[in-house]
Amino acid sequence: MSVFGYSRVSTSSQDYKTQIKKLEDAGAEKIFSEKYTGTKKEGRKELAELISITKTGDKVLVTKIDRLARSIVDLNSIISSLNEKGVTISFLEKALTFEPQKNDSMQTLMMNMLGSFAQFERDLIVTRTQEGKQWQ
Known about the structure:
The chain has helices at 17-25, 45-53, 65-68, 72-84, 105-134; strands at 3-9, 30-35, 59-62, 88-91, 96-98. It is α/β, with parallel strands linked by helices and 136 residues long. The chain has a single domain, classed as 3-Layer(aba) Sandwich (Rossmann fold), CATH 3.40.50.1390. Strand 4 (88-91) and strand 5 (96-98) form a beta hairpin.
């Protein structure tokens, strides 16, 4: 069994050192990090590599749900694809863990709520950015 970490920031001016430290402290042996928008999973090479190398019994750690995805559809897709491979995924901040073949209704509800908030927050950011550009 291997323990992997995944960290992501949205812009090149941000850094993920804090995320990496938390992932290492939680036991991540190898961490995949990238600077890429979380609004879509396409184009995220580190995420794609992480998903491709994981195998049954592995564990993936992420600090927060919105670091994995800001779209509820992508979030569900990523978690499902990992679980289907027999991989457990844990979010450190809310202590949420999704294990293969384990249907926990409360965990699913929490994931959907937090994922929806992440998507809502992203939509607000886009709206505010567009409004700001109109006034320039």
